[in-house]
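Let us practice reading a record.
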Amino acid sequence: MIKLKPLIQELLVKTLNDNPTYFVAWRDKVFLFGSSQDVDSLVGLYDHLSEHPAFNQDDLNMNMIEEDPYTLISYAADMPADVVSGIYDGKNRSISIMGVEKASPVTSVILKKIVKALKLKHVYRTGDSDDSIKHPAKKFKGKLPSIGYHGTNTENMEDILKNGLAAGAGSSNFPNVVYHENEIFFAANFEESKYYAENSTMDRTGRGGYKKKIGVNPVILEINIPDPALVVPDFDADATSQKSQYYQHDKNQPYSSLTSMGASMEAGKFGYKGKILPQQIRWIYFKRTDTSWVKFRPSTVRTGLNSYGSEWYMMIGVE
C-alpha cells in the first residue's frame, strides 16, 4: 500500500494587506494580498514562488505585477497542482479556486491545510459547466477516497452489469493517447468524472476530428474502492509529478514538487490495479437529453434493460 507523507505540516499565513482579496499558497506559506497592493510588498511572494521548479521569469516578472497584481494570481493558477491560488473573501471566510486539476474535494492535502490555516467555512471550485460549485470546508479530508466515480457510456452498460470493471477489458477513452492493461481509472468526485463520461461517447475512427457516436450517451458509475492498497496515481497526474513513478513520462515539461500520488491527491484522480465487481457498483448515473443527471441502482438498470432493451434509455429521458 502506498503511504502518503504530509506535503506540508502547517501553513504560515502571510497577510500583506489590511483588506486582502487574493491568495496564493505553495509549500509552507499562504499569502493574502489585495488588488491595490504596493508592488514592493509582493517581492517576498514573488521570490517564494520563483523557487518552484515550473516557474519561468520570462513569463512573469515584477514589472508585470506592478502593472496589475492580478497577473500574479493568473500565473499561479496555471502552475502545477501544488500551487493553489484564487479569490479570498475574509468576511464570509471562503475562497474561490482558480485553475483546473487542483484542490479536489475530499482528497486535496494542500487545500485541507489552507482551510485550517484560514479558518474557512466554504470553498468554491469551477465545475464541469464552468459554474462555481460551493463546497463546505469540512468536506476536504485530504484522504484517499473509499468511493470513486468512473466515466463510461451506455454502449458498455450490459457488459459492466454482467462482469463489472476490469483493466484492459474494454476500449480506452483515449485510444490514440494512452491505453493501460493494468489500471482502471476513476475520479474522487462526481464533477471530475463528467469529462471522462462525455469523452467516452466520441467516435475517433473518422476523419475531420471527433464526433459523438449516435445513440451512445454518457454514464457515470459510483463505485466502492475494494482495496486501498491497489490505488495508484492517475496517468496525467503522474506526468506532472517531480519524478514519473509509474508511466515513464517524458520529463521535458514543467513539473511540480509533488510525488506521483501527491499530484493525484490534488487532482482527485487515480488508477486502480484491480477489478470492480458488479456488486461493488453503488449507483449508475445517466445524462438526460435536458443535460440533467439521473441515478439508479444497478438492479433497476438491469431490470430495465432486460425488460425493454435500449428503449429503456428513452423511457428515462436519456435519448
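A brief commentary: The first helix runs from residue 43 to 50.
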